[in-house]
Amino acid sequence: MRQQLLDITEIGPPSLDNFISSGNEEVLYTLRNLVAGNQQDRFYYLWGKTGSGKSHLLQAVADAFSEQQCNSRYIDCNQDEPNFNPGTDCIVIDNVERLDDAAQIRLFNLYNHLRDNKHGIFLASGTKPPAQLDLRQDLTTRLGWGLVYQVHELTDEKKIEVMQDYAIRCGFELPLEICHYLLKYEQRNLSSLIRLVHALDQLSLTRQRPITLPLLRELL
């Protein structure tokens, strides 16, 4: 298990290879088949708490299709002004619960266009199952038509295990109190936690000081 964790916690862009699937084996298997061209469906919806890894998976799928020379687009509704282009081979829409009324209508029309034309992959995510989203009912109905998966957040114990294994690979031991502090006060998604551990290691080397809670507080 340790070697497996070490292999997939490198700092880098999100990919299906560096997503830790603990509790999410089925959705990862489905998405691997999707990018390999063995998809069961063309419409997918992932839901789960903030920090569960939904954005990681969506960006990974979008990038995988782009690497295959497909016209793929990732849209984060928290940051982007949604422009739903019906000519996209794979459209990936993160945080759909953030869509305003006008954007919801455009997404509804896009979904129908893709379904009628029998071309294009549609992958979306939100913090709740489709039926519980505070969106237009006709849109939430569409989002529930395809394959729907819950993405489960890693347990704190698993996150600590991954952080400490990453530290060992970098050549140091990460005190348990550092892990608990990060989980309590910082963003809890795994990629952010690993980046903070990496930054802490770099600061320790620069300052020639051991990794301690006071050093972490300086970093933060």
From TrEMBL:
Protein name: Uncharacterized protein
GO CC terms: plasma membrane
UniProt superkingdom: Bacteria
InterPro entries reported in the protein's UniProt record: DnaA_dom (IPR013317), Hda (IPR017788), Hda_lid (IPR055199), P-loop_NTPase (IPR027417)
NCBIfam families: DnaA_homol_Hda
Gene Ontology BP, a term: DNA replication initiation
Domain Chromosomal replication initiator protein DnaA ATPAse: 88-149
